[in-house]
């Protein structure tokens, strides 16, 4: 069995197949530690991407609900910031334990709402869980600095929370990205208002995992109001950007939304960290371990149906390695495309019919530009899921910069292949790309890897590692067009994002002054 249904201990929303849900429940808002039925007049249907059956309806939270969430977070901040670090740490220990307990439940919610396979959804939870686990070490991460300036004077610095902070999340990692934000924000004493994903007013996706996380945080002992969840599209985002009580915004998503959120948020005086889109290149050198490299590239290009910001979406073959594409195609053909709960499914559907149409349109644009589609996943329909948004693994050769399939983030199971003659050309090509999220090189040569690592302009470099997402003791370090703002998610930078420095300079004279003298008015 791929997962044990006996570990399923909750009824609510825990579904482990793609059967039609007879009476889909509405998604609730979470305010003041309560799941509340929204009074929304606008609802957005959320479909199972494998079947397009209705899973739930998600509210466009009303203005009263949005305000109530911030009221609750503001009120909670007053007492939460005064709790001891050890109290917050104990809650985080419990929270980690509960995420582990309900790991399958979280993963099932992700597979149902977002489409990725159950095994991959477990990885989505894991990468967020690791951020929460790392936050448990806060007692040694938040120590300040102290300088004895003179025998009776010292200056010390420490980090204080900001207040109410907000997170605006994308559809593709329904557990990981909320967990990039929540643990570092609350362990440092902030309170949080979170908005899970919505897309283009067509559907809201994946709010289920965030709500389960909220429920687990409450069970772990998080006081009322420390974590709130609201829903909706642009009106909710604008509310968060303009509400003066919100001090910082964490955003992960597409370029357009990110640029808007960054400029409006910072114009309103908020801190904004924004992780955006990507076009991640993998360079394969002639001396690479061929099978290791091809396996890694197939996994990184097509896993999660290519809907990862760190997916490999461009393969740069150096010299003769262009002849390895035939083997790459054979390896990709072995992947099973099906509903995410199906045994042995390697990749599931893409998020929506609109996304499928967009991906297939970009594949067609490559054909129109004279490229060769050596593996074509368009129109793929698993027998059991004729109505899902499936696209099979697709590989396109003869691609060049300037073509839409190269320039645009496809965000689907599509790998475009560019051939160059030398490592220098591969570096030049990659550096000329506007994005700088992740990059990988496959080689057995230390000097080649060292040159690559030094000269490449991407924030996350993998050497024989296809998706080099750093563990949470480091930070997620995209650069160039893949990021706006200067403090990265999680790791030390994440703690700095959610805290502000205070310095205290203290003078403790050992003797009382003998007499009142004429005061000095000069800058000391
Ligand atoms: P998206 O931009 O459509 O949505 C992300 C969030 O922004 C949602 O909560 C949505 O409500 C909000 N939003 C969207 N359009 C908006 C608008 N016009 N005005 C105000 N708010 C708006 O992104 P998505 O499709 O959910 O996620 C996929 C994108 O996210 C890809 O580009 C992917 O590369 C990127 N991503 C980046 C990282 C990273 O760390 N760099 C990680 C995951 C995803």
Explain what this protein looks like in three dimensions.
It is a single chain. With 524 residues, the chain is of the alpha/beta class. It has 16 helices and 22 strands. The chain has helices at residues 63-80, 85-101, 103-114, 118-135, 138-141, 176-187, 207-219, 234-242, 255-267, 290-302, 325-333, 353-368, 404-407, 423-432, 446-455, 491-497; strands at residues 29-31, 34-36, 43-47, 54-59, 145-150, 153-161, 164-168, 191-195, 227-229, 246-252, 271-275, 280-284, 312-318, 372-375, 394-397, 414-420, 435-436, 438-442, 460-463, 479-480, 483-484, 499-507. Bound molecules: nicotinamide-adenine-dinucleotide (NAD). Nicotinamide-adenine-dinucleotide (NAD) binds at residues 168-173, 195, 197-199, 233-234, 237, 252-254, 257, 260, 275-278, 309, 409, 411, 437, 476, 478, 482.
Q: Report the average pLDDT across residues.
A: 94
Neighbour order of strands in the largest sheet:
14-15-16-13-12-18-19
With helices defined by DSSP (H or I, 4 residues minimum), what is the helix count?
16
Bound molecules: nicotinamide-adenine-dinucleotide
Helix-strand category: alpha/beta
Care to give the gist of this entry?
With about 525 residues, the chain is α/β, with parallel strands linked by helices. The chain has helices at about 65-80, 85-100, 105-115, 120-135, 140, 175-185, 205-220, 235-240, 255-265, 290-300, 325-335, 355-370, 405, 425-430, 445-455, 490-495, and strands spanning about 30, 35, 45, 55-60, 145-150, 155-160, 165-170, 190-195, 225-230, 245-250, 270-275, 280-285, 310-320, 370-375, 395, 415-420, 435, 440, 460-465, 480, 485, 500-505.
